[in-house]
Every structure is written in structure tokens, then in C-alpha cells.
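Input chain follows. Return C-alpha cells only.
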Amino acid sequence: QLQLVESGGGLVQPGGSLRLSCATSGFTLATYVIGWFRQAPGKEREGVSSISISGGTTNYADSVKGRFTISRDNAKNTVYLQMNSLKPEDTAVYYCAATRDLIADLRDVWYSYWGQGTQVTVSS
């Protein structure tokens, strides 16, 4: 059974950092594009970042460029999202998702498999 499990969320002060992990099982991670998405209360889900199967191509939402970095370790079946210089507007539930579509970008319609999410709260 294909599973994605997010971890690493929590409460952090503005300007702080968190690293989210997306642990996968039940499939060969190296054949899936992975995306990170987030959804804040009362807002639509938005794409944050995605990474190609090799890790050589990454995409970022304009709102996180220069602050977030996505990476993957296919040997460990895990994808990471390093989040630096966090802002209150980054507060949301963060989800990772997987797709076999190699041209997938930050639109959630591409993604078939989703984790349960991890809460990130940026507040002083």
C-alpha cells in the first residue's frame, strides 16, 4: 500500500527554520515526482515546491523562493522541505504528494497520492 507520512512540523518564531520530512513506503520513490503543498485555514490548497525523480529539477512558488529548499533521498525513501526565514503567512498544514506524471508541476491535479499533513505554525 502506497503511503506518505509527513513529519517535522511544529511551532516556530518568525525568522526561524523547520525541516519537513515525507517518508514514503509501498512504492519505488525513485519513479515518482513529489510535491509539497500547504493549506491555511479558510484558504485553498497551494503548491509550494516539487522535485523531479532525479532531483535535478525543482519548482517553487514565488512566495517561498529563496527561503525553502526541496530535496530527496531515494535510497532512504524520503523527501525533505527545508524552510528558512519563516513568516507568519507560512502557517498552514503542509502535505506531500506523489505522482508518476513526469511533467507534474505545482498544480495539485497532477498528484494521485497524498499524506495526512503536518501542522506548521509561525508565531511569536
